[in-house]
UniProtKB/TrEMBL annotation:
PANTHER family: EXONUCLEASE, POLYMERASE_HISTIDINOL PHOSPHATASE N-TERMINAL DOMAIN-CONTAINING PROTEIN. Signal peptide: none annotated. Residues 129-191 form the Polymerase/histidinol phosphatase N-terminal domain. This is CehA/McbA family metallohydrolase. The lineage of its organism: Bacteria, Bacillati, Bacillota, Bacilli, Bacillales. It comes from Paenibacillus baimaensis. Gene3D superfamilies: Metal-dependent hydrolases. InterPro entries: PHP_domain (IPR052018), Pol/His_phosphatase_N (IPR003141), Pol/histidinol_Pase-like (IPR016195). SUPFAM superfamilies: PHP domain-like.
Length: 426
């Protein structure tokens, strides 16, 4: 199964407010647990007499008031990176917090306030999104809000707008979206493109004229904390023509619709793996404008992340806990070997059976298990649904998976429909 849901639990507190407390501030204390990703707070007021009570709403953390909405809201959300307007996102440190009320108007008979708090815990789970797209902040036609709206409609969890050689989009991200907005910039040169992910301002000057200049720009982005991605390195029009032995974290193996440029990167990556290199790969739509084939989250990058935050998602990619599908609703593949998953290195002596789990398959799909020994299994799917395969990993240095499919609306050619990062074996 694809683990996509958070673990949560709910606590309810009831407080009787007397008329004598009118015009005073009241705290309803609660204990913030450890490892909380987001909270939702709601409240109801029940008047004891005929007059209506007016109770305002806010919250404090261990040190300060973290938000106030007065009588304007009946509930709010507050997370590590996003919050309802009027409330501050940020750390949700364990300890004694309190919901804060202003007893603005209390009937003679008093009233009862019931506060309900749902704690959403940091839960390792699969999140999906797009790590490469553009907007009108460079040569795209979509506004930032349009990009976010489309991604939300697709059910995605994260996105990054990697506009060419500019960071203005990172300062104008929509604040009300449920998506994690990963800061990005596409370092665009005349001889290759690279994405800088995770920091708002990775570079002061993008201009380069030599390999030394490129190395210096990459070093600056690295110093500022950016993850570095080599984009569409074997593209027909803008391949990576600088030295491949530059500082980088990941390679964009799948850019837009699956074509020969991606196939060339796939072959190159297989050779890198055979040489003993452990290299994580990702995908990105590179969408700029409405197009019949280049669309948001096509391909869709799935990340097994510790939390729905920028750091949680990027750390998951660092670990190689990544699988790619041609679309958010396309086939999903994951590999496990005991407690280890894609991106992990299984210690020497612990190599066992690798299990492939594939979901959302269609009859006619071709599922492949590929290792350091080459193509190990090639299965044609007979029925829509799921499939499990196993492979004894003894003697293998890595194992990865692919799903191929025919898309009749394009042509009769088999194209990549899903691709996993490998499990490695020491």
């Amino acid at each position: 199964m694809i683990q996509t849901d958070r673990v949560s639990h709910t606590a309810t507190f009831t407080r009787t407010v007397e008329h004598s407390e009118q015009s005073s501030y009241i705290e309803v204390p609660f204990e913030m647990p450890q490892h909380v990703e987001e909270i939702q707070v709601s409240y109801e007021v029940e008047s004891s007499g005929g007059d209506i009570a007016v109770i305002d709403l806010g919250i404090r953390d261990l040190n300060r008031i973290r938000g106030w909405s007065g009588g304007a809201r009946k509930f709010f959300n507050m997370g590590l990176e996003k919050a309802t307007p009027g409330y501050l996102p940020g750390p949700l440190d364990a300890g004694e917090w309190a919901v804060v009320h202003n007893a603005y108007k209390i009937p003679q008979e008093g009233c009862k306030v019931t506060v309900t708090i749902t704690f959403f815990l940091m839960t390792p789970r699969w999140l999906k999104g797009d790590l490469h797209m553009h907007s009108l902040h460079s040569d795209g036609t979509y506004t930032l809000e349009e990009n976010a709206s489309i991604m939300e409609e697709l059910g995605c969890d994260f996105m990054t707008m990697t506009d060419h050689n500019t960071i203005s989009q990172n300062l104008a991200y929509p604040r009300t979206t449920s998506l994690v907005m990963i800061p990005g910039m596409e370092f665009t040169t005349n001889f290759g493109h690279s994405n800088f992910l995770g920091v708002t301002d990775p570079l002061d000057d993008f201009r380069v004229s030599s390999q030394a200049d490129v190395n210096h720009r990459l070093a600056t982005a690295r110093e500022r904390g950016a993850r570095i991605v080599l984009n569409h390195p074997h593209c027909d029009y803008c391949p990576w023509e600088w030295d491949f032995d530059v500082d980088h974290d990941w390679v964009e193996i799948w850019n837009g619709p699956w074509t020969e440029r991606n196939a060339r990167t796939l072959a190159w990556w297989q050779q890198q793996l055979l040489s003993g290199r452990k290299l994580n790969v990702i995908g990105g739509s590179d969408v700029h404008r409405p197009d019949p084939y280049v669309k948001h989250a096509m391909p869709c990058t799935w990340v097994y992340a510790s939390s729905k935050t920028v750091n949680g998602i990027l750390a998951g990619i660092d670990e190689g806990h990544v699988t790619i599908s041609y679309a958010p609703d396309g086939p999903f593949v994951q590999l496990e070997c005991g407690p280890y998953k894609m991106g992990n290195s299984v210690p020497a002596g612990e190599a066992g059976v690798v299990k492939l789990q594939a979901q959302h398959l269609l009859a006619g799909d071709e599922v492949k298990l590929i290792s350091s020994k080459g193509l190990e299994q090639h299965v044609t799917v007979n029925n829509d649904g799921a499939l499990e395969l196993t492979l004894d990993a003894a003697g293998r240095r890595f194992v990865r998976a692919e799903v191929w499919r025919t898309f009749p609306n394009v042509d009769t050619t088999m194209r990549m429909a899903a691709l996993s990062n490998p499990i490695y074996f020491d």
